[in-house]
Amino acid sequence: MKTKVKAYRKAAGLTQAELAAQVHVSARTIISIEKEQYNPSLMLAYRLAEVFGVSVETLCCLAENKQLEDDEIENL
Known about the structure:
With 76 residues, the protein is mostly helical. The chain contains 6 helices and no strands.
């Protein structure tokens, strides 16, 4: 799943480890989210959005991700 975690993290001047500590996960989890290899749980997405002062919808590109998923389903 595409997210804006990396962009918001960099804009906030946080390292992956610092962000991870704030949301109670490992730095590896943040790395995996930023590489689109891991989909955060709803609670983790909420915690991340709170850190950056944005909505979960914005942080997780929900409209864009829904469209990508819809396109995949239509092409089956």
